[in-house]
Amino acid sequence: MRSHAANAELALLLEVAGTPKPGNVDRHRDFPDLRFEHFLAGAVGARPGLDDAESGAPVGEAFERAVAGMSEQSGGNTQFGCLLLLVPLVRAAAERGLTPESVTHVVEDTTVADAAGFYRAFDHVAVAVPDLPDDADALDVRRGSDAVPELEARGLTLYDVMAESAPADGNAVEWVGGFERTFAAADRIEAGAGSILDRAADAFLYLLADEPDSLVAGQHGREVAREVSSRASELLDAPDADVAAFADDLVARDINPGTTADVTSAALFVALERGVAV
Amino acid sequence: MRSHAANAELALLLEVAGTPKPGNVDRHRDFPDLRFEHFLAGAVGARPGLDDAESGAPVGEAFERAVAGMSEQSGGNTQFGCLLLLVPLVRAAAERGLTPESVTHVVEDTTVADAAGFYRAFDHVAVAVPDLPDDADALDVRRGSDAVPELEARGLTLYDVMAESAPADGNAVEWVGGFERTFAAADRIEAGAGSILDRAADAFLYLLADEPDSLVAGQHGREVAREVSSRASELLDAPDADVAAFADDLVARDINPGTTADVTSAALFVALERGVAV
């Protein structure tokens, strides 16, 4: 039996290998400086932090360690958002079995120290956010660990920080909404046909069609995010070649639905925990 | 810093992702029932056994655990031979730094109990060997753990078993010959240009050209193994498309240079230990 942490690491690997995953690095597509092998190394590097989450370490501490290990490759940020979802899911699976309720209990239980771990994690990696403007909020995540004193002064838990980031950040929406899209996509993977990699690609497209990607919205604006999501809806039952053409188009336009990939990895983890076979 | 075990797991992942690796599953090629995702799960599943090797567990015990974990996927044998090389290499790296001498010390130090662990590992997975004939030797590996009493009666260590299997088995040759090809290929990876996945594919072709693959010789005869090796020599500096055509040809003929892939993974591990970046 694979451990919960091993299932989480495998979910990261299956996520990046699923193809086509329009706009993302996958088994058949690289970006110039962010390539498949960076994701392989990121997944392996994250393992000690995932092991910590399974052993009952605080969420913020386990997350920071996972991100630090993930960052030991030259591609930059590979799986920050995935780990933000996976760490509480692993903790919930180890503590009391994986359900929307158990993971909600884990995230609601987070502390100010967990929020500090989350901010410190930003020191390890350049997450895809624009440069810090002069008038940036005292709790802007781009401040990394510099924001910790302010965080402590205000007494904000990691759950509070996520509640503040929702609804603009799709991962934060998962945190404060019972991981609704994660479990829905896991149902789809569990019920699906074909290899686990085909199902990973299908889950990605389903999630992208379901809702505009929040990373795309942040980087290219809400209109582009809506256009990408709407195009994904039209392709849900389209021939593989059409989806592949869409994937090539997004890579060419540097449009990267990263949040959708994050939720896909979380859904793969839930499916593996439920016994979906590889 | 990744642990030695993490480097070994990453070496397994980089090995299978390197492309083209003629005749093997790689980033762009599957066999009908043995696919990329099986190798991803095999690498993750092997990790506890690799961790044991790093912590100083006996080689046979760590190997058996690694193989048992590797086998928790539906593709069958994915990385048995890789692990036979990686386990003593990880142990050597953890014990006294990785050199031909340190790994030779580890393998020469193996016991009868290690040999028993090696035989028991065959119970976990169908390794690619033909059916057991009626007159098979009492120590035929296909007997798995049934051979252990005979092994103990004869007092054979795992090193003795490997010495018996060389020169027909290329992995056994590595064991008893200071991992010569492993370190030579690691030198080539270290000195090479391009991404680590390009270097992995180059190391594979170099090793295949260097010597006929022992798995191919066992399955298709020595003549075919020589032909494949000779064709690889001609392709060492050939355009990618020619190598890709060779890869497709080998898959079509069901010719799988598995031993060469095993040594490639071991060489990638040595290169990672030396600090080659991903």
Average pLDDT, all residues of chain A: 95
Oligomer kind: homodimer
Largest interface: pair, residues per side: A-B, 31 and 31 residues
Q: Please report the total strand number of chain A as a whole number.
A: 0
Compute the CA-based radius of gyration of chain A.
17 Å
Q: What class do helices, strands and sheet pairing of chain A give?
A: mainly alpha
CATH homology superfamily name of chain A: Triphosphoribosyl-dephospho-CoA protein
Major sheet of chain A, described briefly?
none
Number of helices of chain A: 15
Number of domains of chain A: 1
Stretches of chain A where pLDDT is under 50 for at least 5 consecutive residues are none
Tertiary shape of chain A: globular
CATH topology of chain A: Triphosphoribosyl-dephospho-CoA protein
SSE sequence of chain A, one letter per element: HHHHHHHHHHHHHHH
**Estimated helix fraction of chain A:** 55-70%
Q: Tell me the strand percentage band of chain A.
A: under 5%
N-to-C span of chain A: 13 Å
Describe it for me?
The structure is a homodimer of 278-residue chains. By secondary structure, chain A is an all-alpha fold. Chain A has a single domain (4-273), classed as Triphosphoribosyl-dephospho-CoA protein (Orthogonal Bundle). Chain A has 15 helices and no strands. The first copy, chain A, has helices spanning 4-17, 36-55, 59-70, 80-96, 100-108, 112-121, 148-154, 158-165, 170-176, 180-191, 196-210, 214-220, 222-234, 240-252, 258-273. In chain A, α3 (59-70) packs across α4 (80-96), α6 (112-121) packs across α8 (158-165) and α8 (158-165) crosses α9. The longest helix of chain A has 20 residues, at 36-55. The two termini of chain A are 13 Å apart. The relative contact order of chain A is 0.16. The A-B interface holds A 1-3, 6, 9-10, 13-14, 17, 27-28, 35-38, 40-41, 43-45, 47-48, 69, 72-74, 195-197, 277-278 and B 1-3, 6, 9-10, 13-14, 17, 27-28, 35-38, 40-41, 43-45, 47-48, 69, 72-74, 195-197, 277-278. Chains A, B: This is Triphosphoribosyl-dephospho-CoA synthase. Chains A, B: It holds the Pfam family CitG. Chains A, B: InterPro entries: CitG. Chains A, B: GO terms for molecular function: ATP binding; triphosphoribosyl-dephospho-CoA synthase activity.
